Task: inverse folding
């Protein structure tokens, strides 16, 4: 909303005015589908118009019945991705933030590479490299880790690289704190909000990921967005809208939490 | 309450990168309970010396002895040395009390001991009233006290203060400096104190080490450094003096510039001497000049409260700063002489040729 606020007391600036108007239009265009989605999801017969045939919650109930197993699978998958990202990403971010070493640039490039590669390409590369791992759902997990890891690392590196934090750790050291004590009592409290933001970001990205998942899923390991896609292909538009609304229910609270925790920290690599 | 320890630097050297020494062959012996100030321009290696004592850096060469035992390669957490960086490095997520208790908790001290020791430290540093405040709500002076209380709580053998006053408002600095000195004396801990401000060094120190480019130029009491600077750099940087080359004209007497002669403190045999001239040594004379006077042409004038600070040229010698009680006309010639009864400070060594220019340190 800050984008829309007028600078108080400043002279009228036509360029700023155009910018504000453009932003307003963009926000309306982006947000308009959301209420519409709710209308479609609660209309008995959408092809005939707004709330044609009356208001119903049946579509939402049917939609939930359809996606429930996939929703829970997606949550479990996202939590697993989170755990693996943390186990790999926190030490990697530490290395990148604190140490100059041969191959540092190469490591940064390697971690960020998936950002530049289309999801389809990541998925196909994984299938070609590890064809036997697909059936178990392991490839799906790996694919999502590869896709989400750069976001986690990019959020944590600037937090860990703060000079003030490095000095505090040094002070803790002179006070007698061991490496584990420093990590637990100094470093983690200091990067808490960046860490939490990174975790929610990874969770949300994993929940919504489609490109990689669409190529790597199996009937037993199918994610919510993939199921959403098949709902659009095979079901009535009202059910698809209902499933989309349910999907947003999972993702939007997390997105708001990121914003609250200081979304500005994200991507300051 | 603290067992004060001696600190001995034996030919300590340190290089951040291979071949680039920031500390070169430093030898210093700090007595137990002494306050030693390391003073020098930025980049002279003074903060690096503190980090070496703290164990945050390991010397490239030489030995560091604390209380007689070699600590050169000991980990910081095992040295029992208190370090207060310029930023104070307080734990922002903790309140004052928990900051002060941190070291004792990390060392798993008994709860009762922690409680007692922390309240002692809060009392000593006069921050008892702030005990439950988050450190983010404190002023600069209060933050400094918390940082010192935190460092002292573990009863360190040595306390290291890196520019402890630099982050404070200039108006507060002098008052807090006096408080800090009283606090250090009360705690009795051996203290190494880093600053780039010679006035601060003089005010706080038992002894001062003047550093330049990673080397100790002189180590002594503030009075020694003021009265007998070892070289031009010490005279300029620590004494705030202008260094001139003067000609000997008789026993204990030198000529600084045409018409300007003065008595010197030591009787040197050399014909050419380096002398350190301070603005307090000189006075500008009324319009009618006697024969025995030099000539001074002021180029800039600053009002300094009780006097005007004139910067200009001593004709035939070089740039100079003088204090005068009245405003002057810039660019005009004034008669100048050494105040009657003043003897001029002679620099003991003369080897320092690259710094005999008339620039102030």
Result:
């Amino acid at each position: 909303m800050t984008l829309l606020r007028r600078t108080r007391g400043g002279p009228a600036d036509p360029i700023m005015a155009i910018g504000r108007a453009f932003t307003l239009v963009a926000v309306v265009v982006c947000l308009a589908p959301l209420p519409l989605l709710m209308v479609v999801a609660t209309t008995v017969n959408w092809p005939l118009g707004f709330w044609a045939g009356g208001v119903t919650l049946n579509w939402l109930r049917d939609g939930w019945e359809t996606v429930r197993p996939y929703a829970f699978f997606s949550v479990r998958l996202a939590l697993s991705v989170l755990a693996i990202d943390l186990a790999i990403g926190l030490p990697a971010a530490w290395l990148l933030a604190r140490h100059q070493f041969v191959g540092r640039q190469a490591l940064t490039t390697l971690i960020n590479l998936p950002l530049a590669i289309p999801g389809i390409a990541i998925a196909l590369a994984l299938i070609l490299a590890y064809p036997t791992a697909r059936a178990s759902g392991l490839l799906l997990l790996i694919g999502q880790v590869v896709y989400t890891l750069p976001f986690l690392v990019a959020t944590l590196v600037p937090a860990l690289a703060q000079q003030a934090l490095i000095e505090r750790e040094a002070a803790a050291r002179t006070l007698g704190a061991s490496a584990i004590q420093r990590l637990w009592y100094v470093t983690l409290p200091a990067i808490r909000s960046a860490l939490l933001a990174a975790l929610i970001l990874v969770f949300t990205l994993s929940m919504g990921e489609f490109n990689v998942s669409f190529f790597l899923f199996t009937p037993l390991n199918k994610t919510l967005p993939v199921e959403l896609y098949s709902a659009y292909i095979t079901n009535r538009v009202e059910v698809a809208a209902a499933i989309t609304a349910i999907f947003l229910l999972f993702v939007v609270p997390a997105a708001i939490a990121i914003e609250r925790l200081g979304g500005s920290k994200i991507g300051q690599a | 309450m603290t067992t004060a320890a001696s600190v001995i630097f034996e030919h300590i050297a340190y290089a951040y990168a291979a071949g680039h020494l920031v500390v070169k062959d430093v030898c210093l012996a700090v007595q137990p309970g002494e306050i030693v100030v390391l003073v020098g321009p930025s980049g002279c290696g003074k903060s690096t010396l503190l980090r070496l004592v703290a164990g945050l850096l390991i010397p490239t060469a030489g030995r560091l002895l604390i209380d007689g035992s070699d600590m050169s390669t000991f980990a910081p957490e095992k040295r029992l040395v208190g370090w207060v960086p310029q930023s104070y490095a307080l734990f922002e997520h903790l309140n004052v009390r928990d900051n002060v208790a941190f070291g004792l908790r990390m060392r798993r001290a008994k709860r009762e001991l922690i409680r007692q020791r922390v309240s002692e430290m809060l009392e000593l540093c006069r921050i008892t009233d702030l005990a439950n405040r988050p450190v983010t709500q404190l002023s600069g002076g209060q933050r400094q006290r918390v940082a010192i209380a935190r460092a002292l709580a573990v009863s360190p053998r040595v306390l290291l203060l890196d520019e402890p006053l630099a982050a404070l408002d200039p108006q507060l600095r002098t008052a807090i400096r006096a408080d800090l000195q009283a606090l250090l004396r009360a705690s009795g801990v051996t203290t190494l104190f880093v600053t780039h401000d010679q006035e601060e060094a003089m005010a706080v120190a038992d002894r001062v080490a003047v550093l330049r480019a990673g080397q100790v130029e002189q180590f002594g009491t503030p009075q020694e450094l003021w009265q007998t600077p070892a070289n031009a750099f010490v005279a300029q940087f620590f004494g705030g003096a202008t260094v001139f080359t003067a000609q000997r004209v008789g026993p204990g007497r030198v000529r600084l510039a045409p018409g300007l002669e003065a008595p010197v403190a030591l009787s040197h045999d050399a014909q050419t001497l380096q002398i350190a001239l301070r603005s307090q040594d000189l006075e500008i004379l009324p319009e009618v000049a006697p024969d025995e006077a030099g000539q001074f042409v002021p180029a800039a004038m600053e009002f300094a409260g009780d006097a005007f600070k004139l910067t200009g040229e001593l004709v035939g010698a070089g740039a100079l700063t003088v204090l005068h009680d009245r405003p002057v006309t810039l660019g005009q010639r004034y008669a100048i002489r050494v105040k009657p009864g003043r003897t001029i400070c002679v620099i003991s060594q003369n080897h320092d040729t690259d710094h005999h220019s008339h620039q102030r340190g």
Notes: Residues 7-227 of chain B form a domain with the Rossmann fold fold (CATH 3.40.50.300). The CA atoms of residues 311 and 321 of chain B lie 4 Å apart.
